[in-house]
Sequence to fold (931 residues):
Amino acid sequence: MASAPDYSWPPMEKRKLIGKPIKRLDGPQKSTGRAKYASDLKPQGLLFAAYMGSPHAHARITKIDTSEAEKMPGVKAVHIINPEGTEIQWQGMEVAAAAAATEEAANDALRKIKVDYEVLPHFVQEADLKQAGARGKAAGERVTGDPDKAFQDAEAVSEGQYGIPVITHCCLETHGSVVQWQGDQVHVFPSTQYISGTAAGLAPNIKVPIANIQAHMDYIGGGFGSKFSPGKWAEVCAFLSQKAGGAPVRLFLDRKMDQLIAGNRPSAFATVKLGGKKDGTVTAWESNGWGTGGFAGGGSPPLPYVIDRIPNARQTFTGVSVNAGPNQAWRAPNNQQAAFLTCCALEDFAAKIGMDPAAVFDKNFAYAPDARVETYRYQLRKAADLAEWSKHWHPRGKGASGVVKRGLGLGFSAWAGAGQASQCRATIHVDGSVVVDIGTQDLGTGTRTVITQVAAETLGLPMGAIKLNIGDNSLPVSGASGGSSTVGGVCSSTRKAAMNALVKLFETVAPSLGAQPEDLEAVNGKIQVKDTPAKSLAWAAACKKIAAAGQISEMGENVQRSPGGLNTQGAAGVQIADVSVDTETGIVRVNRYVAVQDCGLVVNPWLAQSQVHGAVIMGLSTALLEERIMDARTGRMLNPDMEFYKLAGINDVGDIVVHLDIRPENDKRGIIGLGEPPAIAICAAVSNAVANAIGVRVPNVPVTADRVLAALEGRNA
Amino acid sequence: MNSRKDPKLPVRPSGGVSRRGFVSGLGIGGGALGTGLLEKEAVAAPAPANLIGPGPAAITLTINGKPVNLKVEPRVTLLDALRNYIGMTGAKNVCDRGVCGACTVIMAGKTVYSCAVLAIDAQGKNIETIEGLAAGNSLHPISAAFVANDGQQCGYCTSGFVMAAKGFLDEHPNPTMDDVKHGLGGNLCRCGTYMGVRKAVIEAAANMKGAKNG
Ligand code: FES
Ligand code: FES
Fold:
């Protein structure tokens, strides 16, 4: 038996498709409106569902009467989600749902469901920790070295308080699915980041064997970490379908419910004290933080971020339980908060000792993991060049006179992004056609495109020769699209499957080329003796020779802990915001945003650039505009919509300069995921730029006009 | 529903503002206030010819030049009529409040948020949807420019952006980049495709002029 094939990526200079700026394969479907999302599906006999939540943040359901709703014309099923006696812990927590022949009738039915609540006291605002009382749960103090002595010995000490609020995912396609439960089979059409896991996620809740659940999705309208599990709504949708005699039911949350219950990013507030030398070296860190991720409390961001080898450190973090919707993973969980708190504190230390923060950041990158120190320093220089740091930076608040002040600010990021466990099947048919089957999904990240690039490159074929099937749980299992783990996983399993199939093809055709299988290669639509185009067979002619077997079908697998050099983890990034602040109106404009990012071997720099653009724009939106606003008196969210929960528009973001750190030393590490890394540092960079512009720190993001004006007037906001 | 503490609270979270009340209270296009696109292009609501409803009424919509007959309750929006009754799903329901532009169509030559127009009020006007944009298998120059400049990621906002770009370019065939940034301000994207969209609209303008002159 031949030894294992060489799966390693072709050398940079030999690549024909990998590493090339290839356009998104499903672009035409999307730009013509033909792409069908789960929320677009309208199978024969579809029923529309409506989903009802509690108007109270904390209450007990004392009575539910659905009798009137059930009698309404057009109503086919009513389902109580949380029965009488349930203690509601946040506004929007599920109560009941209805399915009807029209969306209008379903909504009418909800209005006829009578629910009595015993309203209980609530707590919804965590920004002031003193108010939290018993709702705060302190995690134990963590101490490294001797922080007390280090602060005593420090030549300078800076201190600040910073806050980054709860924000919502606000995916444009809300959470939901279409479900049809017929007999013992359940068909699910979800909007999900994890098609291969949909059945296992749903099965225990509806008590149906995993084997009886079929899940399929072609397109998803955004997830960003909030669509891993099928969600309570999928299970409710299944019950409605069952009650309605097996009719398909479409249940997508309306915008308000989506904002209330379908996911958010935890907040983080902290006082941070840094001590160090006048040359910029930080020697001591102390942080006391708090935040909330909903009723369950809050997770603690990893502090200090990246520069976590500061020799003396003390930190505490208090998770606060509030009566508000539960958090979900949010594109780099905990990292945005950690980057914000760390980079702001570092910039304030630089201002305190009157040093250029670029020099202070550079110096303290010494505390980053050994393998990455030089990468950060290289990226800092690159970003500073692109942002014209030496030309535009000025000491804090010491820019040109005038009402509008310009400033620059820095942020940095780190993310693992190792390839997920993934299986792929590559099939070569006797007529030369090729099918790649893989149970992954394309979130708009370009997954379809990169898989096709890898398969085509491996087989020496054009992209159009590959038929790709994704988005179905009957396909070989791949992981959830999250944590920047997809691209490394699916490209590696595809490479192996295609290579395994190719080796079988080599074995079949080698005799007719008078060569050994290991002497063959697949290039330019041919199987040929290596570097000998004269001794070759066209792809179709070669495939004819597999007639006896009918087809070649081979699996490939990416094993997370031994990716064999195809993918790895550990991405670094440095970003710079260039802002202008109107000191009369408080309005912050982003002039330019520079993002320098490494991610190992870049399969498609065109789509990678789009990923960075998207991450930065989303980050700018959170830095300038986004915040879940809770009302202390009623316990309700004041902006569960899109008119007062603001997303950045096309004119709210300035120019974005992306530099993908593509260098041979990065390329040889293998593929690293990119969804998270460039999304991490933006609040930090923008907040630092605003401080640089106006001379004072605006403690909280988003840096809205009122907060800027309050900071200028010396008030805390 | 009875809440012991506050009996006047809305029946369900989304019941505070009814779609009907919202549209009739503000006038069609009112939901676009402050979002840029429709401020100067709001379409006045026509006076009702006769009283219909609340049950389903037979109406005729002219969609991409062709008449379509359907029965909808008067409260059904043009967006819901397209998606739920006719099965044209290019326009998306994202905010249902005239904020995000995912539901953008062109009605009687004006760009509108179809979630902020009642289907019965859309009768007698030609409604251009994204389904009518492409001729056969070839891409419309705007769609082609979105592909060429990666003006889409998940794609959920893309139909709306393409139609908003169509409406914008119909009126501004020679836009500057600044015009584009203002003219497309009524559409929102969560994936952050604005860099690609900006370039796409400029490129589409150039290509469409070329097509016309050539
Ligand atoms: S869905 Fe119509 S504007 Fe948002
Ligand atoms: S491409 Fe996803 S919302 Fe715009």
Notes: The mean pLDDT of chain A is 97.
